[in-house]
Amino acid sequence: MRNTPTRSQCCLSNVVIQQRINHLLSYNIPFSMAYFDLDYFKPFNDIYGYAAGDNVIKLVADILSEICREHFVGHVGGDDFVVIFQSGDCKEHCLNVLECFNQRISHYFQPEHLIQRGYMAKDREGNERRFPLLDLSCGVISPDVELMDTHHEVSLLASEAKKQSKQVSSGIVYLQTTEVRTA
Ligand SMILES: Nc1nc2c(ncn2[C@@H]2O[C@H](COP(=O)(O)OP(=O)(O)OP(=O)(O)O)[C@@H](O)[C@H]2O)c(=O)[nH]1
After folding, report:
1. CATH number of the domain where residue 172 is located
2. Does the beta carbon of 79 sit less than 6 angstroms from any atom of ligand 1?
3. N or C: which end of the chain has fewer CB within 10 A?
4. What mean pLDDT is reported for the chain?
């Protein structure tokens, strides 16, 4: 890692998650980490209400707890979760999580929104526009534990994976340490 992330780039703000990562790095224990984040959560909250948004966060927590129960599941905050895998079945678990979410989330939408595959809502600038339905993205990283010293470096890689996962139609990307190019 050539660059140290700034405070604003540090997406792993939960101290328990940071400690877990620092522990794995300090003992050179290999791991993969999946960063799950809801897409278009703000318009969902705006249309259906904050309580309905809380129910979706609970849904994600339940799915992760069920499918990844043998692994470390951490709530970063809001609609962001991480799962730390120390065994090799990370990809399969993540794909199962996304599939399960896609099956269960349809119950949270009104029929007309499902038919239209979205709804009108205000963006962050206050402009009314059309948004797709709420979705779940997953950025998976496999940090090189011999090259990384702290959770800050892992956080930088996770931020990049999260960003890329929102840009691909599959909703999932996999990054290795060496693929990080951003500052
Ligand atoms: N219901 C609910 N909403 C929350 C909670 N924490 C944060 N939010 C909302 O989450 C939204 C911000 O999450 P973002 O992931 O940045 O919003 P987004 O629309 O999904 O943006 P993209 O991830 O870029 O698609 C804001 O509308 C917050 O009000 C929470 O605990 N409950």
Report:
1. 3.30.70.270
2. yes
3. C
4. 91
Residue 117 within a domain: yes
Say if pTM beats, i.e. exceeds, 0.80: yes
Closest residue by CA, ligand 1 atom 4? 78
120 three-state secondary structure: strand
The amino acid present at 47, given as its one-letter code, is: I
In 3D space, the residue among 136, 134, 137 whose CA is nearest the CA of residue 173 turns out to be 137
Mean pLDDT of 125-130: 96
Question: Is residue 2 in some structural domain?
Answer: no
| Residue 4 pLDDT greater than 50, yes or no | no
The boundaries of the domain holding residue 155 are 7-179
Q: Is the CB of 91 under 6 A from ligand 1?
A: no
> Is 95 near ligand 1, meaning CB less than 6 Å away?
no
Q: Is 78 in the pocket of ligand 1 (CB under 6 A)?
A: yes
Q: Is residue 149 part of a domain?
A: yes
Q: Which residues contact 26 (CB under 8 A, 6 or more apart)?
A: none
How many folded domains does the chain comprise?
1
The answer to which of 7-11, 28-32, 174-178 has the lowest mean pLDDT is: 7-11
Judge if the beta carbon of residue 38 lies within 6 A of ligand 1.
Answer: yes
- State the distance from the centre of ligand 1 to the C-alpha of 88, rounded, in angstroms: 31
Can you tell me the mean pLDDT for 97-122? 97
